[in-house]
Design goal:
The chain is an alpha+beta fold and 165 residues long. 61% of the residues lie in helices and 16% in strands. The protein is built from seven helices and five strands; from the N terminus they run αβαβααβαββαα. The protein has helices at 2-23, 37-49, 59-69, 75-78, 94-106, 123-130, 135-164, and strands spanning 26-31, 52-56, 84-88, 110-116, 119-121. The longest helix has 30 residues, at 135-164.
Amino acid sequence: MANVKIIEAKAARVQEIAANIARAQSVILFDYRGLTVAEVTELRNEMRKAGVEYVVLKNNLVERAGEVAGIDAKLNDMLCGPAAFAFGYDDAVAPARILKAFIKKVKKCELKGGIVEGKVVSIREVEAIADLPSRETLIARLLGSMMSPISGLAIVLDQIAKQKG
């Protein structure tokens, strides 16, 4: 009877993980070995501030959840050894950016790969995503480039008006 309860609990956990994978814009996997408790706490705090969920999950549960969520089987190749997962629900870039900066700072753990918008991505792709500017920066650049021609036109029209008196 106890085995049935355990199996039901694991099935429920797999469904929960699958729902989190489906809801997240990005999920970054990384090897957390070698981190001290203080470093893990610091990383969790950074992630929490950015709206990123940091969890350590059993690989076999994530493998099953990936199957339920319809994720490519390439995910299973990344699920060897200890792995922690950073779920980015609001910003697809935040988990990768935080982890890349943290790994560069502590020089202890390493990226394994990830899932971005339902597609399994390699370590190189995660690093490329981490190098992207934030959403706010991209919007500011877009608006700046849209305003440039308009402000140029306004300056020219102002000069013409001043010349004609």
